Automatic annotation (TrEMBL):
InterPro entries: FAD/NAD-bd_sf (IPR036188), HdrA-like (IPR039650)
Official protein name in the record: FAD-dependent oxidoreductase
Keyword Transmembrane applies: no
Keywords: 4Fe-4S, Iron, Iron-sulfur, Metal-binding, Oxidoreductase
MF term (GO), any: oxidoreductase activity
Transmembrane segments annotated in the record for this chain: none
Coiled coil location: none
UniProt KW Magnesium keyword: no
Source species, domain of life: Bacteria
């Protein structure tokens, strides 16, 4: 990485990415691995966003809906702890298959993954100054060192805005939203003004569902420890204001708060450290509602002021918990067990450098992802199906508070602080949500096109990382096919993503990463399955196979697909067919009622004709001694023919 522009004032790359967040890293790895010259530019001195800045407890339920680059990252984390401490070590147990990690480990893993790519260059400490467009097409961006210095122009064929704030999209003229939509705008049940008891999920009076411009609260994800030998003390900031925290004394007296970890949520990660977050049941924790309103559209000077306020607020909170004399001694003693992990964030006084921007701008894209896209679709056994799915998400919709403590919250709720994980399903993320309106040659995988409620589940780093990866693959497909990212073949993009083991359709009964899973996921995005099960090991009926062929003729590459033979009793050429009395044989209806399942012999005949007319290899899809064909086998063959045709 370099920290100053070189003497060259204009540079060109295939793909230029703004923002070295996990979403940006995912995009950069995807593009660079496909041979594209890729430059990633970051405003801060740090790479990795929140994942290297304290967020060590991965916000997904499991790896089931994750694929490609995030699985690779998690595998690298697990291998790090195995190789460093041994396979039976407590560190391996605490890393939970790579889903929990220390900030320094995340930094090491990302550096290793990025350093392996010769086509990738990362430039840090540079800010966006301006953009150039030809008509609607973004053609270049100009950046300069954060501390001042000469400007450099970067031209590219595809740009990717992976910033948390959507800065490049905004500068390029992409329309966007801030704040919260009302219930009525997108028919979202939990949108707008809401007071919820976070424990019971009961909705309280005052929940009018009105929209507004409020931004959910930010904080920092701290890395703390009880290990005295690796502890740096909490520091009282010069701006300390006890009034910020005084309400906690009453909470403690009333029994609403019973210790340090009921103010600061201390989730354990390896080596006795924590990912310390806001405690969701405490009304005065590390979040700072209302004081981030100017951040999304603010200059860097404005943002720095807001970051400083949040940092000093949290420093003051930690000092208060250990030292305020109105807190009981037992509480202060409990708090004094904790300190910053001394071997983390050593260049920033053990405090994470990146503020947690949970939400900022949300672009207006070709599709707007809403609360309803992550809930059970009426009439289906799953979330809504998206033809253009590029990734899957698995985190309950939530939002942090948008208002400070107030009487209407009844010492139970902060307005805007809500979660409906009990209603959230594993969902698909459509390509249209990262394709902005009005501006071409640009993809936006982090500040995606979503409502406040929709972003409430997408906004998790593993999800952003996978969407970023899809954006990087889309950039490559755009370049390879010489089509704008807006106009590229979604099917071709999905072929590439599935080849890289991205999960575009989650299914309970098809293991991740198999050959059949590619076909099943692809057709899952074509509404072949009404729920989360494809039943790939069940025998396929001729009725189902015929229907699938008919639908597939409408898909790119499928117009030449032949019908199934009208009978399973066709003799090979050269065999004498007579004597034969067709009128004495069963009717077609009776014939297929008696023989409802597709036979392997019939499937082989069909695939031989399909391979010939589509100029494709026949494959061994129906080889073996089994007389019937499974659903997975037939879909695998069908997908193979479509994919081959699209590559021609």
């Amino acid at each position: 990485m370099v920290e100053r522009s070189n003497s060259m004032q204009a540079r060109h790359a295939d793909v230029v990415i703004l923002g070295a967040t996990p979403g940006g890293i995912g995009a950069a790895l995807a593009a660079a691995r496909r041979g594209r010259k890729t430059i990633m530019i970051e405003a801060t001195p740090y790479v990795g966003g929140l994942m290297t800045s304290g967020l060590g407890m991965t916000d997904i339920h499991s790896l089931d809906a994750a694929g490609s680059v995030f699985r690779e990252y998690a595998s690298n984390v697990l291998n790090h702890y195995i190789e460093t401490y041994g396979p039976e070590s407590e560190q391996v147990v605490h890393c939970r298959q790579g889903l929990r990690f220390e900030p320094s480990v995340a930094k090491t893993i990302f550096a290793r993954m990025m350093g392996a790519e010769s086509n990738l260059e990362t430039i840090v400490s540079h800010e966006l100054v301006s953009v150039e467009k030809e008509g609607d097409s973004l053609t270049s961006i100009t950046v300069r060192p954060m501390g001042g210095g000469s400007e450099t122009v970067y031209r590219a064929d595809v740009f990717i805005d992976a910033t948390y704030e959507g800065d490049l999209a905004a500068k390029a003229g992409v329309p966007y939203s801030l704040g919260r939509e009302s219930r009525d705008e997108w028919n979202e049940e939990y949108a707008g003004t809401l007071y919820q008891n976070f424990r019971t999920k009961e909705v309280l009076p005052g929940s009018t569902g009105d929209g507004d411009d409020r931004i959910q609260a930010y904080n920092f994800r701290l890395c703390l420890t009880k290990n005295r030998s690796n502890q740096a003390p909490f520091v009282k900031p010069a701006s300390y204001d006890r009034n910020d925290y005084a309400s906690l004394t009453e909470d403690v007296s009333a029994g609403r708060v019973k210790g340090f970890s009921e103010v600061c949520n201390t989730v354990m990660i390896p080596n006795g450290k924590t990912d310390t977050n806001n405690y969701h049941y405490c009304l005065c924790s590390t979040d700072l509602p209302e004081e981030n309103q100017d951040y999304p559209e603010g200059s860097w000077a404005v943002r720095d002021r807001i970051v400083k306020r949040h940092r000093e607020y949290i420093q003051g909170l930690l000092w208060f918990l250990q030292n305020d004399e109105e807190l009981p001694e037992w509480f202060r003693e409990d708090s004094r067990q904790w300190g910053h992990a001394a071997d983390e964030f050593e260049d920033t006084d053990h405090f994470p450098p990146q503020i947690y921007v949970r939400e900022a701008r949300r672009i207006h894209g070709e599709y707007v992802f809403t609360e309803n896209d992550a809930r059970r679709a009426p009439g289906l056994g799953r979330s809504p199906i998206h033809y253009d799915s590029i990734a899957s998400g698995d985190y309950g919709i939530d939002s942090h508070a948008t208002r400070k403590r107030e009487p209407i919250g009844q010492n139970i709720a902060l307005e805007g602080f809500m979660a409906i994980g009990f209603l959230t399903e594993i969902y698909q993320i459509p390509y249209g949500s990262i394709v902005p309106q009005r501006v071409d040659r640009l993809l936006v995988p982090v500040a995606v096109s979503a409502t406040h409620m929709g972003l409430g589940t997408i906004r998790m780093e593993p999800c952003w990382m996978q969407i970023g990866y899809a954006a990087g693959v889309a950039a490559d497909v755009s370049l390879a096919t010489r089509r704008h990212v807006r106009d590229l073949s979604v099917d071709r993009l999905q072929d590439e993503l599935l080849a890289d083991k991205q999960v575009i359709t989650y299914l309970k009964d098809e293991p991740w990463g198999t050959e059949t899973s590619k076909a099943v996921q692809y057709f899952g995005a074509r509404s072949f399955f009404p729920g989360y099960e494809a039943h790939p090991d069940e025998d396929v009926t001729v009725a189902q196979a015929s229907q699938w062929i008919a639908i597939s003729r409408l898909l790119p590459g499928g117009k030449q697909l032949p019908c199934l033979p009208a009978t399973a009793a066709i003799l090979p050429a050269g065999a004498d067919m007579g004597p034969k009395a067709p009128k004495q044989e069963p009717t077609p209806e009776q014939y297929w009622t008696d023989q409802p399942y597709l036979t392997a012999a019939m499937a082989r005949r069909w695939s031989q004709v399909a391979a010939r007319v589509m100029n494709a290899p026949q494959g061994e899809w129906f080889a073996g001694e089994k007389e019937t064909v499974t659903r997975g086998q037939f879909l695998n063959a069908l997908y193979g023919f479509l994919r081959t045709a699209r590559q021609h």
